[in-house]
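Q: Got a minute? One more chain.
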Amino acid sequence: MIRIAVLAWTIALLPPAFGVAQTATAAQALQTATPAPGASVPAQSSAPQAAPSLSPVETASPLAPSVPGGSGQPPAALDPFIWLEDPNSPRALAWVRAQNAKSLAILERDPHYALFYAQALKLVEAKDRIPVPEFMGGNVFNFWQDAHHVRGIWRETTLTSYRSAAPRWTTVLDVDALAKSEHANWVWKGADCRWPRDDRCLVSLSDGGEDATTVREFDIATRRFVPGGFFLPHGKQDVSWFSDDALLVSREWKAGELTTSGYPFIVERVTRGRPLAAATEVFRGKRSDVDVAPYLLRDGQGDKCVLIDRGVSFFNSDYYVMAPGGLRRLNMPEKAGPEALVANRLIVRLNENWNAGGDRFRQGSLVSLDLRAATADPQHLKPRLVYAPGPREALQEVSATKSRLLVTILYNVRGRALAFAPAPGGGWTREALALPDYATVSVVDANLHGDDAFLSLSGFLTPPSLTLADAVRGTPVTVKTLPARFDASKDVVEQRQARSTDGTLIPYFIVHPKHMRYDGSNPTILNAYGGFQISSTPFYGSVLGKLWLDRSEVFVLANIRGGGEFGPAWHEAGLKTHRQIVYDDFAAVAKDLIRRKITSPRRLGIQGGSNGGLLMGVEFTQHPELFNAVDIQVPLLDMLRYEKIAAGASWVGEYGSVSNPKERAFLAKISPYNNLRRGVQYPMPFVWTTTKDDRVGPGHARKFAAKMAALGIPYLFYEVIEGGHGSGANLPEIAKTNALEFTYFTRQLME
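A: Always. Here it is, folded:
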């Protein structure tokens, strides 16, 4: 499904190149019509007891009663901090500036900060990073940021040159120069080029990093935007090429034409040379939908499939295919979605069981449909099995080359890559690519003009490498490897298990010194995400390694339920009113670390972003005795109002709704904002967000901090003015956020 498709190197909280950030998974940045709240970024953590080493940041605000039982739309009398939900109000921004000044006065003056910032900046701006490649027009394209290109450049080279030690790049578009010339705050959001020539591209640019974009047609040959070409003004929108001279676009065509989640639900055909007002409606969903988005799948033989994804909920969709007689609905389960096209066969991922054509296909499988037969009779589909997961296996990514289907899977949270070839009669043959074990494997890009694909391989202690794989011959060749960013020779990685409250064994990775003392004295950061079927897998964190592991400290990554490490059932175990088990899983891992005397509450910190930030908030309020540092990144925290803030209404399928009495009661029970209490000895948290986050919104973090201040609870708060749903819009901003986090962890856990 388009809402939960993930790409391995474009994580919302990650810089745009290999080996830069410390993320908890290699597949969490959602390039989707309605993204999940986001992915976690391993960096630091939080905890309770021991005398706090940081001075509290306070704000003088009265606190009216906080009633967990309201309608979800409390008046200001019941929620005195509701005014902080407005991202750009002068009053709210004045509050943010005051909070930033207080927190930065503590953290930036710490003796560790200057070194941490210098080290982080050097790492994120390093010129020997691996440029993330994209096949296009017979060449390799890359978007690059460094000290001289703060906003970034889009550039190209030949495949032969790219494989060399020093590729010769040609700049296609300089975003810094563009922003300067147009007096704009442009942030690159990608390009979609028309197939098969890849000569004209729809370039998406964001104001400061938010999800909303402006889309403009760009000519690769002239290196210029096309005069009089396609132009879609600022807004949350999805666009796909329909033909050389027509687009399919979903956007807010008239004021108010958005779903309750804030996304478009009307698709129209835009024709070259005609104004947007003359666009022709193609499909209309409902305001109650999450979103409606068009997209195009192509194969190496020139076939194409035009689809409309009507998101009934975040995880449920109806799909309509463009057939000779017009759009027709594919009779598939709502938790199934087309992901690729190979040899005119439509590849469909199943997140629920499907009985069709006399066969039963299990959730977590891949099936294929003959596209001609499916468009001719979409009511009576006859799927063929491509892949079914074995024990401890989970499907991850799906990509296509000219004649092969590339699939990555997890086996006990370890990466594998498989190549499938169409066989006579509608079947498929399978071959495993020869790749190292114990690595996270992600498809960086697959070539529809050929059968080669770039794969990334990485591990906690293994610098990322880029492999060029021939999907037909199965002969991967390493073409680039990131230089080591820290000394990993003294460390080791282990995989252990903790028993949760219902008896389920929860695996977790632990990175620690070979000669670690089992006396509870080890400063430890525990990270997890636990939602949206997103898997947390081993990664190489340059900043994490340099600023934390190099100092003989410990890092832990927990594979709690809610994620996708063991398929759809692992995710579904923590949906809605069952979500407490996700939080129990995390606490079980923390307790296991303490029981084994790897660490202690005094030395244990936790960290997570977005949905992982909600996880941090829940652990902060439910188990303050377990931790001494809590790093809460771009979080959801007010779960009684999350549906009213930014894109929150789109995640009802994950969290439930206050309109449902049973779900509302559960949300009131776990909502961090509503469960803060005076007189409880909490650890001092570091809560940070961004003004430009139009996905989760900065209101959650702001209100949480304001309420802590009113209750007399020590805390640190920081808000990045730019950056969207992430840690910054450019590399210096990202380095600063990282340095602040590690300074916080050092003070809380090591001093």
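A: Residues 1-33, 39-72 have pLDDT under 50 and may be disordered.
Q: Perfect, thanks.
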